[in-house]
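Exercise 7b. Backbone tokens:
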């Protein structure tokens, strides 16, 4: 014969139904919230630190001020559609320098932010693309007989990093001259 302690459980105990009267397992009056106060009446926002707003956590953070404070600081690449390559480019190789020579993009802006080829327009010429390219544009280039050479992301990141370093050095020198 088996012991009672070794039998499998056939029932499960339900949780306490808060606020459903005295017989529910958690009283009928304050229902486990204690008496009076903010937490008894409603929820407290996670960043709320009391009524002294001058010393609050939010005020102590170094937030940006002004109109564009919530906008992204990340620079977006210059967008070039396939129809412009078809119309203006005379070379077969598509890179930042060839686009700048044709007058499609500004060289400084393209080197700082990068360039991306998008697939708007029809293409009949054969191109070798060395820039980041969208899927639809890549299909159109390959269909026309062109080739896509994957750009080395390290080079692009190095260009962007060097620009950022120069900017940070100039701001540091400005800060030292003010003090």
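Sequence design result:
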């Amino acid at each position: 014969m088996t012991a009672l302690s070794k039998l499998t459980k056939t029932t499960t105990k339900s949780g306490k139904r808060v606020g459903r009267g005295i017989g529910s397992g958690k009283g009928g009056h304050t229902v486990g919230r204690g008496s009076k106060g903010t937490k008894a009446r409603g929820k407290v926002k996670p960043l709320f630190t009391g009524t002294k707003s001058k010393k609050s956590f939010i005020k102590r953070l170094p937030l940006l001020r002004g109109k564009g404070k919530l906008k992204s600081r990340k620079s977006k690449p210059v967008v070039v559609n396939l129809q412009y390559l078809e119309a203006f480019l005379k070379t077969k190789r598509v890179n930042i320098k060839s686009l700048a020579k044709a007058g499609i993009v500004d060289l400084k802006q393209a080197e700082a932010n990068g360039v991306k080829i998008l697939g708007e327009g029809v293409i009949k010429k054969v191109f070798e693309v060395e820039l980041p390219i969208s899927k639809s544009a890549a299909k159109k280039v390959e269909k026309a007989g062109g080739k896509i050479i994957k750009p080395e992301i390290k080079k692009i990141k190095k260009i962007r990093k060097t620009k950022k370093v120069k900017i940070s050095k100039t701001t540091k020198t400005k800060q030292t001259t003010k003090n």
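Instructor comment: Confidence is low (pLDDT under 50) at residues 163-179. The radius of gyration is 32 Å.
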